[in-house]
Amino acid sequence: MSAFTQHATDLQYRLALFGAPPAFAERLHVGRPNIGNRARLMERFDDLLDRRWLTNDGPYVLELERRIAALLGVRNVVAMCNATVALEIAIRALGLTGEVIVPSFTFVATAHALQWQQITPVFCDVDRHTHNIDPARVEELVTPRTTGIIGVHLWGRPADAAALGEIAARRRLRLMFDAAHAFGCSAGGRMIGALGDAEVFSFHATKFLNSGEGGAVTTNDDELAQRMRLMRNFGFAGYDEVVYVGTNGKMNELSAAMGLTSLEAMDAFIAVNRANHAAYAAALDGIPGLTLLRYDDRERSNFQYVVVDVEEAEAGLSRDELQQVLQAEQVMARRYFHPGVHRMEPYRSYFPQAGRVLPETERLTRRVLTLPTGTAVDAEIIGRVCDIIRLAVQHAPQVRERLRATAPASA
Ligand code: T4K
């Protein structure tokens, strides 16, 4: 048998792309929810069913708000049905209009929450290393129509609140943060939650703190909090007195019960995520072209995202090729946040040239791959995921050839 045939035979037994059985019998997801103490959750469900109080500022919602406020060291926590509605309400309560500066390297909801209210998101480039909005690029985007800036703490790593705060104060803009990823994380040693005028957290099933669906706005501004409380409840100030245009942004009791249970397991979730991150760091070490995004040791982090940067020239495979290899093995690695919000509708029609001023965003959306973590994953699984990656990179030319040969004709 020639060396080449031997090679091909090996891969045939080792990678699903070449016909081997997938490494995992079931799909391994990036966003597998962490549950916490199931018995305690069931107790809470029983209790709320017994009391027949299911929503509208129920005791579990109030308890969740109180406990989050204490943990984050912020005066007000306004729980909501999800972070997208929380963003919309915070944006409206802050009086934002016209144009608001946001990164494009984020989940689409950050921009949609503005556009939904006829406010134009003006996309700002991000920093190559932090992946967060680049304060040096913000000021050139300010126009007479600009009313605010929304920073995103991407992957739970804090945006530069000091630099953004300085610009906002000087240009008389409101500043808020999309902190959807950042529950339990700190900035400059203080828990994220009291930065800018308001911060918005997500408690979606895939998030670090999970209430099924849910979110919250946190702020030290009591008046703003009061406005948001009214807005999330149709604007009702009493049984039949409405003082604002409002919506229904309330969190229900089942979600709050889940959120409280999740909150109680927070330290355990962090320990698992941290260990998973360390296992990835060890297992990916030395694979050419792959760099694991690190969390700052001086800050508190939830380690909820395992983010890998793929340098195609060194790995011999592009991020997309690596994703295809992994998906064949049932590892559902994700391309967050590809292709960038500016390349999604309606923004790509509104601003077809936006990519020209977003070179770092465009670069990252081609390189970043997010891998599975959380309580559904352990060091053994991570070892197997990384073995697949290592093997694929070692045999990059054959893998690339195989991918090309098996690609659908239209691709
Ligand atoms: N701002 C930022 C920066 C955000 O990242 C997000 C949300 C928001 C604002 C808005 O927050 P919310 O309004 O959602 O509270 C997911 C989440 O749906 C979304 O919440 C999240 N960001 C985003 C980063 O990821 P998708 O469409 O990419 O994935 P999804 O929901 O299909 O879940 C990923 C995988 O997780 C699934 O393929 C399977 C697995 N999964 C998912 C769910 C829901 C499970 O195993 N169990 C589950 O219950 O958006």
List the helices and strands and how they pair.
Elements: H1 3-14, E1 28-29, H2 38-51, H3 59-72, E2 76-80, H4 83-93, E3 99-103, H5 109-115, E4 120-124, H6 135-138, E5 146-152, H7 161-170, E6 174-178, E7 186-187, E8 190-191, E9 198-202, E10 215-219, H8 222-231, E11 236-238, E12 241-242, H9 253-264, H10 266-284, E13 290-292, E14 306-310, H11 312-315, H12 319-328, E15 331-332, H13 347-350, H14 359-367, E16 368-371, H15 379-394, H16 396-406
Helix pairs in contact: 2-9, 3-9, 4-5, 10-15
Describe the fold and architecture.
- Strand 3, helix 5 (109-115) and strand 4 (120-124) form a beta-alpha-beta unit.
- The chain folds into two domains: 3-30 and 266-406, Aspartate Aminotransferase, domain 1, CATH 3.90.1150; 38-264, Type I PLP-dependent aspartate aminotransferase-like (Major domain) (Aspartate Aminotransferase, domain 2).
- By secondary structure, it is α/β, with parallel strands linked by helices.
- It contains 16 helices and 16 strands.
- Helix 2 runs antiparallel to helix 9 (253-264), helix 3 (59-72) packs parallel to helix 9 (253-264) and helix 10 runs parallel beside helix 15.
- The strands form five sheets. Strands 2-10-9-6-5-3-4 form a seven-stranded mixed sheet, sandwiched between helices.
- The model has no long low-confidence stretch (mean pLDDT 96).
